[in-house]
Amino acid sequence: MPLKPFNENIRLVGAHFLVWASILLISFFSMLQADGAWPSALSACISCSFYALIVYGNICFLYPRFYQKKKIFPYVLGSLVLLLIAGFGRGYLSLYVRNVAFAAAPHWLNAWGNITFLLSVSTVFILSFIFRLAMAYFTLKRQAEKILLQRSQFELRLLKAQVQPHFLFNTLNAIYYEAYMEAPQTALLIERLSDIMRYFIDQSTKEYVQLSTEIGFLDNYIALEKMRIKPEPEISFQCNADDQRKIPPMLLMTFVENIFKHGIDKISGNNRIFISLYEKDQHLVFQTKNFLNRHADPRQQHGLGLKNLHQRLTILYGTNFEMNTNEDDQYFTAHLKFPLT
């Protein structure tokens, strides 16, 4: 698996090489009969160099920096500058080489010659733009396929884990009613556990869930975690968002799970957790903050859940999200922001 990206890069470079080699040969043989071998070879090399400047200048610099960010005027201005540099550069460099090395008498470009060179590089630019749009389309298509594959794999793993779920829920209900008569608090915890399991089975395979459902899932998870931690951690959960909004399931869980997995100091018992959820500019912002665990096991692995969450967000939103963590002398802070539908 680690060799796959490297092999893909090798194939991509090879494909680019073949394309430019083909263009170079076509240019060379189209001029060979009229100009001879050396003039044709030099002209073909100069033309391909400026064509490459246009193509990669557009698809690697102008398009991602301006067009993708909806900065149309800078994109048009940059494109005009690129076309002028490439068009006149190609024309006058070709003519200079021909005059110095091959021509019996010097020749200079007239107005029609300048227009011809500008039209030729403009054609190449338009083709590069169409090619870049095609690349964007296939990238989005590949991301969509990854999402479908990830969802299918997740559902398959979930189905494998569902060992007679109806039997399990019926058993939990029976235990709940028995416990309710003797220990109502225990019965409440059983009910929360049942709700969590029902969320995994009924909701987590959906493309979107209501924010209220996700918040309820977090509340149940926090309640169960508080039960096993003594002294009980002090938790502040502030929510200022429309709970009818819809988000992909399990996006908020990782930060909270990370706190209880790595941030709880069972020795000192000094555990304060701050959780906030709010809307800002059609985005959902989720933040968690907890005291550093001074007695954490250094051998314990960190960051796998956060890494998986970042990969999932990339598949869902591309670069249109923010996710970062910060650690100072006292607190560990996590921040997540992604667009709302």
TrEMBL record:
Domain Signal transduction histidine kinase internal region: 155-230
Transmembrane feature ranges: 12-32, 38-63, 75-95, 115-140
Gene3D superfamilies named among the record's database cross-references: Histidine kinase-like ATPase, C-terminal domain (3.30.565.10)
Lineage: Bacteria, Pseudomonadati, Bacteroidota, Chitinophagia, Chitinophagales
Alphabetically ordered keywords of this record: Membrane, Transmembrane, Transmembrane helix
Highest taxon of the lineage: Bacteria
Cross-referenced PANTHER family: SENSOR HISTIDINE KINASE YPDA
Name by which UniProt lists this protein: Signal transduction histidine kinase internal region domain-containing protein
Cellular component per GO, a single term: membrane
Signal peptide positions (record): none
Cross-referenced InterPro entries: Bact_2-comp_sensor_kinase, HATPase_C_sf, Sig_transdc_His_kin_internal
Record-level Gene Ontology MF annotations: phosphorelay sensor kinase activity
